Amino acid sequence: MMPLIAKPGEEGGLGLTNLQIGLLSSGLSLTWALSGMAVGPLSDKLGSRKPIVVIATFAFCACSMLSGLAGSFLLLLGARLLMGIAEGGVMPVSHAMIVSEVEPKHRGLAMGVGQNLGSNLLGSTAAPLILVPIATYFGWSLNGIFPLFMATVPAERVDPRLTASLTGVVLGLGEVIGGVGSPFLAGALADMYDLTAPMWLLVVLTLVALVASMFLRDSSPALSSPR
User: Fold this and answer.
1) What residues contact residue 225 under an 8 Å CB cut-off, 6+ apart?
2) Residue 22 burial class via C-beta count within 10 angstroms: exposed 0-12, middle 13-18, buried 19 and up
3) Distance CA 149, CA 175 (A)
4) Taking residues 178-184, what's their average pLDDT?
5) Taking the model in full, what pTM does it have?
6) How confident is the model at residue 195 (pLDDT cuts 50, 70, 90)?
7) 56 versus 180: which is more confidently predicted?
8) Which of 63, 91, 203, 214 gives 151 a disulfide partner, CB atoms 3.0 to 4.6 angstroms apart?
Protein backbone atom coordinates (compact mmCIF):
# COMPACT_ATOMS: atom_id res chain seq x y z
CA MET A 1 0.00 0.00 0.00
CA MET A 2 2.94 2.35 0.60
CA PRO A 3 3.74 2.77 -3.15
CA LEU A 4 0.18 4.00 -3.72
CA ILE A 5 0.59 6.56 -0.95
CA ALA A 6 3.88 7.71 -2.42
CA LYS A 7 2.78 8.21 -6.04
CA PRO A 8 2.65 11.97 -6.71
CA GLY A 9 0.06 11.47 -9.44
CA GLU A 10 -2.10 9.00 -7.55
CA GLU A 11 -5.52 10.38 -6.67
CA GLY A 12 -5.56 10.85 -2.91
CA GLY A 13 -1.85 10.05 -2.67
CA LEU A 14 0.52 12.08 -0.55
CA GLY A 15 3.47 12.10 -2.93
CA LEU A 16 5.93 10.87 -0.32
CA THR A 17 9.61 10.24 -0.90
CA ASN A 18 11.23 6.89 -0.14
CA LEU A 19 12.80 8.43 2.95
CA GLN A 20 9.41 9.58 4.25
CA ILE A 21 7.98 6.10 3.67
CA GLY A 22 10.88 4.68 5.65
CA LEU A 23 10.16 7.15 8.45
CA LEU A 24 6.54 5.98 8.61
CA SER A 25 7.71 2.42 9.28
CA SER A 26 10.49 3.50 11.62
CA GLY A 27 8.20 5.74 13.66
CA LEU A 28 5.66 2.99 14.24
CA SER A 29 8.37 0.52 15.20
CA LEU A 30 9.98 2.99 17.61
CA THR A 31 6.81 3.66 19.61
CA TRP A 32 5.93 -0.05 19.32
CA ALA A 33 9.26 -0.98 20.93
CA LEU A 34 9.03 1.61 23.71
CA SER A 35 5.42 0.71 24.46
CA GLY A 36 6.15 -3.02 24.59
CA MET A 37 9.02 -2.50 27.03
CA ALA A 38 6.81 -0.34 29.25
CA VAL A 39 3.45 -2.13 29.11
CA GLY A 40 4.91 -5.63 29.57
CA PRO A 41 6.36 -4.96 33.04
CA LEU A 42 3.24 -2.98 33.96
CA SER A 43 0.98 -5.94 33.20
CA ASP A 44 3.25 -8.29 35.16
CA LYS A 45 3.09 -5.93 38.12
CA LEU A 46 -0.68 -5.41 37.98
CA GLY A 47 -1.46 -9.05 37.17
CA SER A 48 -4.47 -7.94 35.10
CA ARG A 49 -3.73 -8.63 31.45
CA LYS A 50 -7.01 -9.05 29.58
CA PRO A 51 -8.20 -5.42 30.02
CA ILE A 52 -4.85 -4.17 28.70
CA VAL A 53 -5.12 -6.33 25.56
CA VAL A 54 -8.73 -5.26 24.92
CA ILE A 55 -8.00 -1.54 25.37
CA ALA A 56 -4.82 -1.69 23.29
CA THR A 57 -6.58 -3.58 20.48
CA PHE A 58 -9.41 -1.06 20.25
CA ALA A 59 -6.88 1.79 20.38
CA PHE A 60 -4.90 0.24 17.54
CA CYS A 61 -8.02 -0.09 15.38
CA ALA A 62 -8.97 3.53 16.04
CA CYS A 63 -5.47 4.75 15.16
CA SER A 64 -5.51 2.65 11.99
CA MET A 65 -8.69 4.42 10.92
CA LEU A 66 -7.04 7.77 11.69
CA SER A 67 -4.20 6.89 9.34
CA GLY A 68 -6.75 6.45 6.56
CA LEU A 69 -8.04 9.97 7.20
CA ALA A 70 -4.59 11.59 7.19
CA GLY A 71 -4.17 14.26 4.54
CA SER A 72 -0.48 15.00 5.03
CA PHE A 73 2.75 13.27 5.91
CA LEU A 74 2.85 14.69 9.45
CA LEU A 75 -0.72 13.60 10.22
CA LEU A 76 -0.02 10.12 8.85
CA LEU A 77 3.20 9.92 10.87
CA GLY A 78 1.35 10.96 14.02
CA ALA A 79 -1.31 8.30 13.45
CA ARG A 80 1.34 5.64 12.98
CA LEU A 81 3.19 6.72 16.12
CA LEU A 82 -0.05 6.23 18.05
CA MET A 83 -0.59 2.87 16.34
CA GLY A 84 2.82 1.76 17.57
CA ILE A 85 2.00 2.75 21.14
CA ALA A 86 -1.21 0.71 21.02
CA GLU A 87 0.31 -2.29 19.24
CA GLY A 88 3.24 -2.49 21.63
CA GLY A 89 0.80 -3.13 24.45
CA VAL A 90 -0.87 -6.06 22.69
CA MET A 91 1.89 -8.49 21.90
CA PRO A 92 3.83 -9.06 25.14
CA VAL A 93 0.66 -9.19 27.21
CA SER A 94 -1.28 -11.49 24.89
CA HIS A 95 1.57 -13.99 24.80
CA ALA A 96 1.91 -13.86 28.56
CA MET A 97 -1.78 -14.80 28.69
CA ILE A 98 -1.09 -17.82 26.48
CA VAL A 99 1.75 -18.93 28.74
CA SER A 100 -0.42 -18.67 31.85
CA GLU A 101 -3.56 -20.27 30.39
CA VAL A 102 -2.26 -23.08 28.16
CA GLU A 103 -0.70 -26.32 29.38
CA PRO A 104 3.04 -26.60 28.66
CA LYS A 105 2.56 -29.56 26.29
CA HIS A 106 0.21 -27.50 24.09
CA ARG A 107 2.00 -24.19 24.48
CA GLY A 108 4.04 -24.46 21.29
CA LEU A 109 0.92 -25.10 19.21
CA ALA A 110 -0.92 -22.23 20.87
CA MET A 111 2.00 -19.89 20.26
CA GLY A 112 2.20 -20.96 16.61
CA VAL A 113 -1.50 -20.37 16.06
CA GLY A 114 -1.37 -17.07 17.91
CA GLN A 115 1.49 -15.81 15.79
CA ASN A 116 0.73 -17.20 12.35
CA LEU A 117 -3.06 -17.22 12.10
CA GLY A 118 -3.34 -13.46 12.34
CA SER A 119 -0.01 -12.15 11.08
CA ASN A 120 1.03 -14.57 8.34
CA LEU A 121 -2.14 -16.32 7.16
CA LEU A 122 -4.42 -13.28 7.36
CA GLY A 123 -2.05 -10.32 7.51
CA SER A 124 0.62 -11.41 5.01
CA THR A 125 -1.38 -13.72 2.73
CA ALA A 126 -5.03 -12.68 2.68
CA ALA A 127 -4.63 -8.97 3.41
CA PRO A 128 -2.59 -8.08 0.28
CA LEU A 129 -5.08 -9.93 -1.94
CA ILE A 130 -7.91 -7.87 -0.46
CA LEU A 131 -6.33 -4.51 0.33
CA VAL A 132 -4.30 -3.89 -2.82
CA PRO A 133 -7.36 -4.04 -5.15
CA ILE A 134 -9.24 -1.78 -2.72
CA ALA A 135 -6.36 0.70 -2.72
CA THR A 136 -6.12 0.51 -6.52
CA TYR A 137 -9.78 1.21 -7.23
CA PHE A 138 -10.91 3.27 -4.24
CA GLY A 139 -7.71 4.89 -2.90
CA TRP A 140 -5.21 3.85 -0.24
CA SER A 141 -6.91 5.67 2.66
CA LEU A 142 -9.91 3.31 2.65
CA ASN A 143 -7.64 0.51 3.82
CA GLY A 144 -7.30 2.24 7.17
CA ILE A 145 -10.54 0.57 8.23
CA PHE A 146 -8.98 -2.91 7.92
CA PRO A 147 -6.44 -3.04 10.77
CA LEU A 148 -4.52 -6.32 11.01
CA PHE A 149 -1.58 -6.77 13.35
CA MET A 150 0.91 -9.49 14.11
CA ALA A 151 2.30 -10.82 17.36
CA THR A 152 5.62 -12.49 18.02
CA VAL A 153 5.68 -15.63 20.11
CA PRO A 154 7.53 -15.63 23.44
CA ALA A 155 9.42 -18.74 24.49
CA GLU A 156 8.37 -20.94 27.36
CA ARG A 157 11.84 -20.65 28.87
CA VAL A 158 11.13 -17.91 31.40
CA ASP A 159 9.17 -17.49 34.62
CA PRO A 160 5.49 -17.09 33.58
CA ARG A 161 5.23 -14.14 35.96
CA LEU A 162 7.84 -12.28 33.91
CA THR A 163 6.74 -13.35 30.43
CA ALA A 164 5.22 -10.01 29.43
CA SER A 165 8.21 -8.05 30.72
CA LEU A 166 10.84 -10.16 28.96
CA THR A 167 8.80 -10.48 25.77
CA GLY A 168 8.44 -6.71 25.69
CA VAL A 169 12.21 -6.28 25.99
CA VAL A 170 12.98 -8.82 23.24
CA LEU A 171 10.37 -7.40 20.86
CA GLY A 172 11.40 -3.88 21.69
CA LEU A 173 15.05 -4.47 20.87
CA GLY A 174 14.08 -6.22 17.65
CA GLU A 175 11.84 -3.35 16.63
CA VAL A 176 14.48 -0.72 17.40
CA ILE A 177 17.09 -2.50 15.28
CA GLY A 178 14.95 -3.92 12.49
CA GLY A 179 11.86 -1.76 12.55
CA VAL A 180 13.33 1.67 13.28
CA GLY A 181 16.77 1.60 11.71
CA SER A 182 16.14 -0.58 8.65
CA PRO A 183 13.19 1.29 7.04
CA PHE A 184 14.88 4.65 7.60
CA LEU A 185 18.13 3.39 6.07
CA ALA A 186 16.29 1.60 3.23
CA GLY A 187 14.39 4.75 2.30
CA ALA A 188 17.55 6.85 2.35
CA LEU A 189 19.42 4.30 0.19
CA ALA A 190 16.55 4.17 -2.31
CA ASP A 191 16.60 7.97 -2.65
CA MET A 192 20.40 8.08 -2.93
CA TYR A 193 20.82 5.15 -5.36
CA ASP A 194 17.83 3.21 -6.70
CA LEU A 195 15.10 0.81 -5.56
CA THR A 196 17.46 -2.19 -5.67
CA ALA A 197 19.55 -0.77 -2.81
CA PRO A 198 17.04 -1.77 -0.08
CA MET A 199 16.98 -5.30 -1.51
CA TRP A 200 20.74 -5.59 -1.08
CA LEU A 201 20.35 -4.25 2.44
CA LEU A 202 17.90 -7.08 3.16
CA VAL A 203 20.35 -9.64 1.79
CA VAL A 204 23.12 -8.37 4.07
CA LEU A 205 20.88 -8.29 7.15
CA THR A 206 19.59 -11.80 6.41
CA LEU A 207 23.12 -13.16 6.18
CA VAL A 208 24.04 -11.45 9.46
CA ALA A 209 20.99 -13.00 11.15
CA LEU A 210 21.88 -16.41 9.72
CA VAL A 211 25.40 -16.26 11.10
CA ALA A 212 24.18 -15.00 14.49
CA SER A 213 21.61 -17.81 14.74
CA MET A 214 24.38 -20.40 14.56
CA PHE A 215 25.61 -19.27 17.98
CA LEU A 216 22.27 -19.52 19.78
CA ARG A 217 22.14 -21.86 22.76
CA ASP A 218 19.12 -22.98 24.78
CA SER A 219 19.51 -21.52 28.27
CA SER A 220 16.73 -23.54 29.88
CA PRO A 221 18.15 -26.48 31.88
CA ALA A 222 14.74 -28.18 31.94
CA LEU A 223 14.42 -28.12 28.16
CA SER A 224 18.04 -28.60 27.16
CA SER A 225 18.84 -31.56 29.43
CA PRO A 226 18.56 -35.11 27.99
CA ARG A 227 15.25 -36.87 28.60
Assistant:
1) none
2) buried
3) 14
4) 73
5) 0.57
6) confident
7) 56
8) 91
